[in-house]
Specification:
Layout (H helix, E strand, L loop, with lengths): L2 H4 L2 H11 L11 E2 L8 E2 L18 E9 L5 E10 L2 E6 L9 E4 L4 E4 L1 E6 L38 H7 L2 E6 L7 E9 L17 E5 L2 H8 L8 H30 L11 H10 L4 E6 L2 H14 L3 E6 L7 H7 L2 E4 L17 H7 L4 E3 L10 H14 L6 H4 L5 H6 L17 E4 L10 E6 L2 E5 L22
Parallel strand pairs: 3-6, 3-7, 8-9, 11-12, 12-13, 13-14, 14-15
Antiparallel strand pairs: 1-2, 3-4, 4-5, 7-16, 9-10, 10-11, 16-17, 17-18
Length: about 475
């Protein structure tokens, strides 16, 4: 799904107005031209480190007689899911197994789409949690869009396999929140790999991590530099977006002149402004750390001023106060079930936040922000669902599963690929031992792109990172 498919009319109009002068082609090599001569028009790739992820070989699998929750609000009793060539080929009842298919009797069990965690720091803050591994927060300047989370990801983080055992198949790894502009985030497939490129979700848009509120003002105010206040935060955003607007204009003027055959000199490249220009062109999605309702409203105004779109506010403990504003923008809220009160901007948190956002018509979802919480996101949703019901907000379990799969897929720009059990999508599937909203339920099996990637009862199907193997001689007597 493209940004245009879910962006509200007001925000879309602003982005299209900025893009009217023709956004650059950033898909090719850094210096290309039709003639291939030395006077090539200078262009830089939006993704110079492309994904090398290759799905594991998968056969044909038919899961039968399960309670199927499809991730977009539907639930089928005694349902079947058929997987062929790594994709979901049929969902329904009474499906017939093709010749040679692996057939799994899931009577009494549940099948769901794989969980997507939109806010993780796995790999950037890996286990073991020692200072040498703290690679997720470039707190050397309040504006660091030039750094990319993928360049800090350690694929050997044991947190990835623990998340897989919790049914997590896709992970958005973000930089930390110490800066106004923290850098680019990356969306990963939760597979064992040697390099981060082997984990990168093919075709997933990059994200930009931004932060408002106490974090950046505390970090830099304690150093007696700006930003030290909320107004300093806002001034810092505006100055950076203004630079990005001018940078974008200068490149467009160069491309227009060069393509017209005129003698033109390209602007000096700025890696940070490349990222911000990508946001202005609608190619990079903004994921914004923000707690208070009034601050989120101001950031929405800021996005209108410079013509970009906020895909999701993260943490958003006061989002329950503004679901109408979020819905009008097509902006999601990624929240915890019950964290709050640990600092002033989190003071007005309520346990009914997630169901109230949903009931107010906005796109709502759970997130972890924790190497522990990512292992139990199904239980986090169960808590929020129960809190909502106690408050009189009646939401079905099938609808609540959107908070774990299709809604985060929407905010990451990958809903056309994953996030639901629909024909043609990647076969990212979890088979649960029982109702996944139960504390006692476990992920029995996990498939990623149709390949069995985790089996709770088969140690050979449980990936083990190098750190967990121990040292030579360890355990010998």
């Amino acid at each position: 799904m493209t940004l245009k498919a879910w962006m509200p009319a007001t925000a879309l109009a602003a982005v299209l107005a900025l893009a009217a002068c023709s956004a650059p082609d950033t898909s090719g090599d850094s210096t290309q031209s039709a003639s291939g001569d030395s006077d090539a028009v200078v262009r830089y790739s939006l993704d110079p480190y492309p994904s090398t992820y290759v799905p594991r070989a998968s056969g044909v699998t038919l899961i039968q007689h399960a309670t199927v929750i499809d991730g977009v609000g539907g639930q089928i009793e005694n349902g079947d899911v058929l997987v062929e060539n790594g994709r979901i080929s049929a969902v329904g009842t009474g499906l017939v197994a093709p010749d040679g298919a692996t057939v799994i009797d899931a009577t009494g069990r549940y099948v769901t789409p794989g969980i997507i965690d939109i806010h993780s720091h796995l790999g950037d803050y890996p286990s073991p949690g020692v200072d040498a591994n703290n690679d997720g927060n470039e707190m050397t300047s309040p504006v660091t869009p030039q750094v990319w989370a993928e360049h800090s990801v350690w694929p050997q983080d044991v947190g990835f396999e623990a998340a897989l055992a919790g049914g997590v198949t896709t992970i958005s790894v973000l930089p930390g929140s110490g800066n106004l502009f923290g850098g680019r985030g990356i969306t990963l497939r939760n597979v064992a790999a040697r390099t981060v490129q082997e984990m990168k979700f093919p075709g997933a848009p990059y994200t930009l991590k931004m932060a408002c509120g106490e974090n950046p003002s505390r970090v830099y105010g304690s150093r007696n530099q700006s930003p030290a206040t909320d107004m300093g935060n806002m001034a810092g955003y505006r100055a950076a977006w203004q630079r990005a607007t001018e940078y974008r204009r200068s490149w467009q003027e160069y491309w227009d002149s060069a393509e017209a055959g005129e003698d033109a000199t390209p602007p000096t490249r700025d890696l940070g402004l490349d990222t911000l220009m990508g946001v202005l062109n609608g190619e990079i999605l903004v994921e914004m750390h923000c707690y208070r309702a009034d601050q989120m409203a101001q950031i929405i105004d800021l996005s209108h001023e410079f013509g970009y779109h906020v895909a999701a506010f993260h943490h958003a403990v006061e989002a329950y106060k503004i679901p109408d504003l979020l819905a009008a923008e097509g902006t999601c809220a990624a929240v915890w079930a019950d964290w709050g009160g640990f600092k002033m901007e989190a003071y007005d948190s309520i346990r009914e936040n997630l169901p109230m956002i949903h009931a107010g018509g906005a796109c709502a979802m759970i997130h972890s922000d924790s190497e522990m919480g990512i292992q139990r996101l199904n239980q986090e949703v169960a808590k929020a669902l129960a809190d909502g019901r106690r408050a009189g907000i009646d939401i079905s379990e099938a609808d609540a599963w959107r908070w774990l799969t299709s809604n985060p897929a929407t905010a990451l720009g990958i809903l056309d690929q994953t996030g639901s059990l629909e024909v043609g999508k990647r076969a990212d599937i979890v088979l649960w031992s029982a109702d996944p909203f139960s504390t006692y339920s476990r992920a029995d099996r996990v498939w990623i792109d149709g390949a069995l990637t985790y089996d709770r009862r088969d140690e050979d199907m449980q990936p083990v990172r190098d750190f967990m193997l121990g040292q030579p001689g360890e355990g010998d007597e």
